[in-house]
Amino acid sequence: MTAECPTPNHEDEVVLLGHGAGGRLTAELLDQVILPALDGAPGPMEDAALLPGHRELVMSTDSFVVSPLFFPGGDIGSLAVHGTVNDLAMRGAWPIALSVSLIVEEGLPLSELRAVLGSLGKAAQSAGVPVVTGDTKVVGRGAADKLFVNTTGVGQRHGSLHPSAALARSGDAVLLSGPIGLHGTTVLSTREGLGFESDIASDTRPLHRLVRALAPLGADVHVLRDPTRGGLAAALNEIARDSSVAVEIEESAVPVPEAVASACDLLGLDPLVVANEGCLVAFVAGDAAEDALAAMRSVEEGVQAVRIGEVLPDGPRGRVTVRTLVGARRIVDMPLGEQLPRIC
């Protein structure tokens, strides 16, 4: 006689924090609840969508619930602008307009609201994108945590630059524009008082100028993705899945700042799953890799760009592996749920 796991009682199912983490639980929520209700078409889950009837216009929306509101290197206001601008950029688009919606908890000091909005406005001006519309709601004490921000962006794609998570192919080089793990560890350390925030700062910044530098490579740029929730591990797994390819990276090639490595060691985290807000991963044709690296390094946001891996000519489709420092290979799984809550 064999024991079997009990059948889940669907009446007792609830939303978990991990459903918003960008990992496997998020994918399940999308596939089983959200997309069926919206008659969502199957296909790659992109950072931004093409507007129907307008092949060169893309749109993205995102909500930001980061805690605390302010952290070394940024705040929820600038993060909201950068996050949406970057989602547009990952489809090869230049931002042309933003909307901003606020959900404010009763009791939030007006000084904090002014500081957030001042930062948001400066970030939009610096990115060269106007805020053209928005909305504000105030809810009772305890109905929200201080301030939630939603931003929606519309962008115009660059000529022949049409990247997609489904376009990676055998022989592609995998490039990373800078070090990983800075944003997630900074926010967590600030919130929990771990002390690492004195040594590190969030990498939040807009990446559309970096993407514009890649535009001359056109069709040789196959995939662009900013590894936010779920970190580099989630981004690579999504690309491997949507493109049906095998991806391998070199552990020694992935830049992890010393303070990030120390924080991850203390907390038992893998830097590959920690969120980032100011770097991107690019899959480009192998023979265009050096030109792509030169283009990325020509702008401030990409001066630390490196090649970290490749798309293998064979291997299990949809799988990501890392060659470790000792030469062994291990599978890089899609994160299950939330390891670092409320960081974006």
Q: Classify the helix fraction into a percent range.
A: 25-40%
Structural class by SSE content: alpha+beta
State the end-to-end CA separation.
48 Å
Poorly predicted residue ranges: 1-11
Question: Can you tell me the overall shape?
Answer: globular
Q: Largest sheet at a glance?
A: 7 strands, mixed
Average residue pLDDT: 91
The side-by-side strand order for the widest beta sheet comes to 9-11-8-12-10-13-14
Q: Count the E strands.
A: 14
Strand content: 15-25%
What does this structure look like?
By secondary structure, this protein is α+β, with helices and mostly antiparallel strands. It contains eight helices and 14 strands. Strands 9-11-8-12-10-13-14 form a seven-stranded mixed beta sheet, sandwiched between helices. Strands 1-2-7-5-6 form a five-stranded mixed beta sheet. Strands 3-4 form a two-stranded antiparallel ribbon. α2 packs parallel to α3.
Observed structural traits:
alpha+beta, five-stranded mixed β-sheet, seven-stranded mixed β-sheet, 344 residues
Gist of the model:
With 344 residues, the chain is α+β, with helices and mostly antiparallel strands. 28% of the residues lie in helices and 24% in strands.
Topology:
Blueprint: H1 24-37, E1 49-51, E2 54-64, E3 70-71, E4 74-75, H2 76-89, E5 93-105, H3 110-127, E6 131-139, E7 147-157, E8 173-176, H4 182-192, H5 208-214, E9 221-225, H6 231-243, E10 247-250, H7 258-267, E11 281-284, H8 289-297, E12 306-311, E13 320-323, E14 329-331
Parallel strand pairs: 5-6, 10-13
Antiparallel strand pairs: 1-2, 2-7, 3-4, 5-7, 8-11, 8-12, 9-11, 10-12, 13-14
